[in-house]
Design brief:
The protein starts with a helix and ends with a helix. It is mostly helical. The protein has a single domain, classed as TIM Barrel, CATH 3.20.20. The protein contains 6 helices and 4 strands, in the order αβααβαββαα. The longest helix is centred in the N-terminal third of the chain and has 14 residues.
C-alpha cells in the first residue's frame, strides 16, 4: 500500500480485510490512506456474519467515505452464524451494532453443526507464559 501511495497510484482504495491479513492490517491501511487523503470503501469476500461484523465496524472509521460492498448475508447463506443477521435497509444502509465484541450473538449450535474438523489448542497458564518469556529474554 505504501508503494502505491508513494507513486500516486490510488484515487481510492477498495479494502478487503480478508485479503490483506485481517483487522490489524486493515487498520494500518486505513491510517495510511486517511493521512494521504485517499478515500476507502470496504468489500467482503463471502464472509458469514462472523467475518462481516468486523468489516462493518471498519466502515465506521473516518477514511471510509465510499459505500461498502457488502450484501446482506441472506444473499449468500440460508442461515447466518450470527443473530440477528444484518440486513440492508431500503436506503441501502446497514445498521452497525453498538454491542461489544463482534456486536452480534454467535449461533454456537449452527457453528457446531457446520464444523467439519475441530482442533482444540490448550491455552497456556498466563503466569507460566510470562515466566517463560522472561527466561527467554535473559
Amino acid at each position: 500500500m505504501r508503494s502505491a501511495l508513494d507513486i500516486d497510484a490510488c484515487r481510492n482504495v477498495n479494502l478487503k480485510p480478508g485479503r490483506v491479513g485481517g483487522i490489524a492490517a486493515s487498520l494500518e491501511i486505513h491510517q495510511l490512506c486517511f493521512e494521504a487523503g485517499i478515500p476507502l470503501w470496504c468489500g467482503g469476500m463471502l464472509e458469514s456474519g462472523i467475518g462481516r461484523a468486523p468489516n462493518l465496524a471498519l466502515c465506521t472509521l473516518p477514511g471510509f467515505t465510499h459505500p461498502a460492498d457488502m450484501s446482506q448475508s441472506s444473499v449468500l447463506y440460508q442461515e447466518d452464524l450470527v443473530h440477528p443477521s444484518y440486513e440492508v435497509d431500503a436506503e441501502g444502509s446497514i445498521c452497525v451494532s453498538s454491542e461489544p465484541g463482534l456486536g452480534y450473538e454467535v449461533n454456537e449450535d449452527l457453528v457446531e453443526a457446520w464444523t467439519v474438523q475441530r482442533l482444540d489448542v490448550p491455552v497456556p497458564d498466563a503466569k507460566e507464559a510470562l515466566r517463560a518469556s522472561t527466561i527467554n529474554q535473559e
